[in-house]
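Format is sequence with structure; example below:
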Amino acid sequence: MQLDSFLLADNVIAAEGKLYIHGGGITRINAPAVPIVVPQLMIIVRLLLDPEEVNQAHELQLELADPAGRPVILAPPSRIPAPGDAGAATGEEQFLQLILGLAGILLETVVIYRLTVSIDGEVLRALSLPVVLIDRDDEPTVAPAPRPNREQRRRKS
């Protein structure tokens, strides 16, 4: 089993073997203040399976921990059913796509949390997820109008 893709997003929908990703590429949580409740965080995992793994079930574990290693979220192990190879062409690569959803995540401090996804007891991916304070008063402003180039200034004269 080999990790092919790993992505954090606001929302994901799976349909017809495809993933429709909204707000993908999350690398941190921007917070106006802490504590903050993150309403939803989706984790997309795509695994390239070895031929002998195609018809095997697997166990998934998900953990979000603070810098001291204390779990903020420790999801109970979940059983992933065997994906099977129905309709696969001879020699076709087989993938397992997983969408994991977390809701109502309470993050109490401005620190770097650690998100870990394990399959069959082996860490598949661990990544940092910092909480960063942003100032609400620093709302984006309208950019100033571009300065006219030489040709435009000559036409005005």
Observations:
- The CA atoms of residues 64 and 70 lie 8 Å apart.
- The chain has one helix and eleven strands.
- Residues 150-156 form the longest helix (7 residues).
- The first strand starts at residue 2 and ends at 9.
